[in-house]
Amino acid sequence: MTATTKSAVTTRGRVWWFQWVSYALALGDMAALLVAFYLGRLSHAFYFHLNPAWVLLHWWGSYAQINLLLFLVLSALGIVAFAFKGHYSRRKAFWDETGEILGTFILLLILNAAIVFAGKWQMSRLWLFSTWVLVMGLLPLTRWLLRRALQSLGGWARPVVIIGCGQNAAEAVRALNSEPMLGYTVERVLLPGGCSLDARSFPAHAAIEALGEDPLTTLARLGKPHVVLALDMDQWELQERLVRSLGLNYPNLTIAPPLRGLPLFGMEVMHFFSHEVLMLRVRDNLSRFVPRITKRLFDLIAASLLVVILSPLLLYIAWRIRREDGGPVFFIQGRVGRQGRQFGCLKFRSMVMDAEDRLKQYLRDHPDVAAEYERNFKIRNDPRVTRIGKLLRRGSLDELPQLFNVLRGDMSLVGPRPLLERELDRYGKNICLYRLVYPGITGLWQVSGRSETTFDERAQLDAWYVKNWTLWYDIVILLRTIKVVLRRDGAY
Fold this sequence. Notes:
By secondary structure, this protein is of the alpha/beta class. It has 3 domains: 3-152, no CATH class; 158-260, Rossmann fold; 289-350 and 385-487, no CATH class. 54% of the residues lie in helices and 12% in strands. The chain is built from 16 helices and 11 strands. It has helices at residues 3-47, 52-57, 63-84, 94-119, 125-152, 167-177, 215-221, 236-247, 289-325, 355-365, 367-376, 387-394, 402-408, 431-434, 455-467, 471-487, and strands spanning 158-163, 184-191, 207-210, 226-229, 254-255, 267-272, 275-282, 330-336, 342-348, 412-414, 440-442. The strands form 4 sheets. The chain has a 5-stranded parallel β-sheet, sandwiched between helices. It has a two-stranded antiparallel ribbon with strand order 6-7. The longest helix is centred in the N-terminal third of the chain and has 45 residues, at 3-47.
């Protein structure tokens, strides 16, 4: 058997396997939906103080038949919607896929409730709502477990080749490596003609070889893997030729265009019939009235709930700070907010009361530390931090009083870092985007390394956040903040 024949056999086997994986994912979704419907009845049992085991083991009466039929119809609509969005045929990043799942089921919940209330059907409303809430948790969990099982069996990994050699290709590799549950394994980096690459600086443990004069032959020899075309701006003409030659043979060709600084989530694509012209209409979400109101309402509701829930912890921390040295509980520092207005940023005091004088003396005595402070305005093993302050900083608990800044309208739960006056010039051109929104207690920079990120990287992350804001991404950043704080990544 020749190498070409072996490659063809391998390719057919791989296609067959991925088709069955798609079926397994769809069946997993169906199973999760049915389990949620079955367990949703438990809320009814708990509310009316019934025996849960008895409720689950007995049929629930004739009205349950209507509920079951309606749920099955709506579930089928959900499965069709996921298939249409490519959940079973294409790989999606975890948070993007989860956002689509929640959005789909919220719409189905509203539709389910509207049908029941409008028809005045005799069925348990509590059962209806608890079922869809369970679905929103069980279905993502089922998908995750299935993919982990397939990953452990070696059946989830999908080989990928990157065509490129510059910064754009390197960023594409980093992006794929940051989402292990995608299952994309970068096996090779193919270099187009006239392209050289420094393997030591490239973030891939993969073979590097030439693309060759005939890209289709090279890819066929490699078993027709998933292709990501990631050329740089100076290779635009080459990219156009490769898109034309590969597009017909690779219907799922992925293109990573060398475009930076665009508001990806506020962009509309314009097509023109019979013209090979693509136009992108840019609009920053947070420059519009409705998204700003939505963000503010979310901040008020979430911050109010957090203050109520965390009030015992807030009182305990205040008592510990006061007990340690008898000084003030809060440290109020002037920060720059939206439209450049100054406000008093609240924190639990984590330093000694003469912190500024001690800082000046410490930097004079340790000039090597002065360079680190100039870069990030932070010091490892800061001698000014109190005993309770070290604990607060490790868990970022010193920032909890900023919830009151959110309620007062000075800050947002998620947003750019609240800047000091001396830091404004270092933001450069990005400062105009920063002034569109309120600074945040947490932000994209914090979940991307916290104190380990450089100041310039923070500025770039803040600019990306402002241009690409969505309410779902605020929720994602808050969830990832909890993970980062619990792991204590980069905090000091």
